[in-house]
Amino acid sequence: MSDTVQTLEGWYALHDFRTINWASWKYVSVEERGKALQELLLFLEQWHVVEINKQGSSAVYSIVGQKADLAFMHLRESLEQLNELETAFNKTTFAQHTIPAYSYVSVVELSNYMTKPGVDPMDDPDIVARLKPTLPKNNHICFYPMNKRRDGADNWYMLSMDERRAMMRSHGMIGRSYAGRVKQIITGSVGLDDWEWGVTLFADDPLTFKKLVYEMRFDRVSAQYGDFGDFYVGNILNLSKLQAMLEV
Ligand code: 76R
After folding, report:
1. Is residue 2 included in any domain, yes or no?
2. Which residues bind Fe-coproporphyrin III per the record (predicted)?
3. What is the tally of structural domains in the chain?
4. Is residue 189 part of a domain?
């Protein structure tokens, strides 16, 4: 019997980070900026319709710091749909005033560390809903990619299922103590992108990110086996906030 953990997959995810080329955005005429903005708002409306119809979900953020200015997070049923979406967006006038900063491709993932043996998780409507989530519209997002370490004696993938399950239980207990203050979407990216998982956290108070991530640093699974990429933190944008941000 293999010790591989079983995973359940849901919607595919694209995290699309852009820097705004303010010089070109300011250079074009008021009319062209207006048209570009209308086109952008039309896209946001289309994404909203997809979300209402439960065929995916999207959210837009302004990123704090120099890593990017904007982040689009999209969940869709297939890689083809994500690809169509990004290509269509890239053809917009507004996108021509943006520079790609970073992107991440992954798929919403739940693992069976916590499921009871003999129970089919797909019978649980809660689990099915978590595989195809509507992105929470909390004030703030925090995204970072991560790996589980494979380094000499610290090799997560050489541990037994029981050892990993015990550590994931402790991890889950810390996570649950933040219930109501933070929501997490774990997306798996083994074979899809450069890291093994994308961690996306949503909270109304950004300090919750700091407290949670710091507390987890002391927990064994993160302390001994976690390797982390760059962190992106941002503020949610609705139509009027996006318009205000793009005002020049
Ligand atoms: O889904 C569950 O409630 C079961 C428990 C659980 C699992 C299996 C859980 C709970 N997570 C799981 C899996 Mn998580 N999580 C992270 C990070 O910064 C760090 O140190 C790590 C980044 C955070 C902040 C976080 C938060 N989790 C995973 C996995 C897959 C591992 C694998 O398969 O080997 C990763 C990479 C990961 C990373 N976790 C929770 C949280 C929070 C807040 C919870 C509670 C969620 C809830 O109860 O809804």
Report:
1. no
2. 130, 144-148, 171, 184, 222
3. 1
4. yes
**At 62, which amino acid appears?**
S
CA angle 71, 241, 239 (to 5 degrees): 85
CATH of the domain at 81: 3.30.70.1030
Residue 220 C-alpha to ligand 1 middle, in angstroms?
13
Dist. CA 162–CA 32, nearest whole Å: 60
Cβ 111 under 6 angstroms from ligand 1: yes
Nearest of 214, 47, 46, 192 to residue 109 by alpha carbon: 192
4 lines ligand 1 (CB under 6 A): no
H/E stretch holding 82: helix 79-90
State the pLDDT at residue 119: 82
Task: Report yes or no on 195 lying in a domain.
Answer: yes
* C-alpha distances out from residue 160 to 2, 165, 166, 217, Å: 10, 9, 10, 22
- Give residue 242's domain range: 7-246
Task: Report if residue 1 sits inside a domain.
Answer: no
Please tell me the distance from the alpha carbon of residue 238 to that of residue 217, in angstroms, as a whole number: 33
Rounded Cα gap, residues 42 and 39, in angstroms: 5
Mean pLDDT by 10 residues, the chain (248 residues): 84 98 98 98 97 98 98 98 98 98 98 84 91 98 98 97 97 98 98 98 98 98 98 97 97
Amino acid present at 162: D
Measured distance CA(50)–CA(43) in Å, rounded = 11
